[in-house]
Specification:
about 170 residues; mainly alpha
Length: about 170
Amino acid sequence: MAYTTPQQGFEAVLSSFNGLRELQTRPGGAESLLAIYLRTNMAQIAASPGRPALSFGDLAMSLAQDAALAQLTPAQRVQLLEASLEKLQTINRDHPDVFSADELTWLVAKLVVKDFPESAALVARRPEIVTYLRTGQAVAGEAASADIGATIRQILTDRGYDTDLS
């Protein structure tokens, strides 16, 4: 079944997968998800004939949840951001036909807004970014998605991150 937004799709998965729901509510659950995420090797997944029980997209969506981000320390969120940027580069460079970068891009945007104070005022003035952060879906089409991406990349670049995701 298709869902209107990635967040709605995630909530549907969450309602039918007890293990994921348990990780969402258990103290230390987000840290456990982060450990799995950091060990995830994109090349191994791309080369494997089977599908893992928890897909990479589901893992990224789990970590993008407000409850999970709140469980992580600022240092863990920086680690998550850096790993996510690296994984985005790997997906775009080596595996664009295997993985969707949508969930990962949403996770990066949520991390930037949560941890970089200068982004709060910018986001507050941009209802399309507020909606994107809440739902995972750009509401105004491809141009808005490109604009959101450019805004997030600019914030990251200003912070010294490599945002060449090609």
